[in-house]
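Let's do one together. I've listed all components of the complex below, 238 residues spread over two lines.
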Amino acid sequence: MLYATLDQKAAINNSAVPGQAGLADGKLELDADDVGYGFNLGVLLSPWSSTRFGLTYRSEVELEFEDTAKLKNIGPVLQGILNGSGLAGSEVDIDMTIPQAVMFSAYHQLTDRWAIMGNIGWQEWSAFGKQDLTLSSTTSTSFTKDLGYDDTWHFALGAQYRFAERWLWSVGAAYDTSPVDDADQNTPEM
Amino acid sequence: MTVGAAYEYLDAGDAEIDQEGGPLQGPLKGDYDTNAIHFFAVNLIWKF
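Okay, and this is what the predicted structure of the assembly comes out as:
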């Protein structure tokens, strides 16, 4: 079960609208929350006493945020356009997906003191990058904003050293590929 | 009972933002190049 909140504030450039030159920025606010559901599955195999292999799957979780956009300090011309198109006071519906993920892992006990381990994982961030936005007023307008995210890969290696009977050192490093390639894909949320 | 302590350093790379936006939103540009997270954790396993 995943509880998520969305708190989004955006400045509206009033002065870009003809007839509103010199007006200060307006503001758009969205504030919503939702509960999504998902599941985890995993198997652990131990073909030899010193070796274990694991495979885990985490399902995607769908989230739907609903709110009426709150607009403040909107200039009269833009307010007229919003009123005329029925967009003022319309319900905003934002759907997003927390990505599904698969992880393969291996563990091997080399000696009484040393063990090594590693992971390879995949996460479907391209699904998170596709956000559905629906504006409901007298008519309903729906479109998908594709942020163009890539799926990501995760690689990790680790080692454990038991330097005394009751003491264990663990050390490791991981590398994740990026879901974004360029600065024009980066958003402040990331 | 097993007690553990862990430290993790996450280097999230640079975060250069260069969004065009639309006529109302306007462009958004910036560079936030110190993107690191330090994790300190203490964990406790109690078998009963």
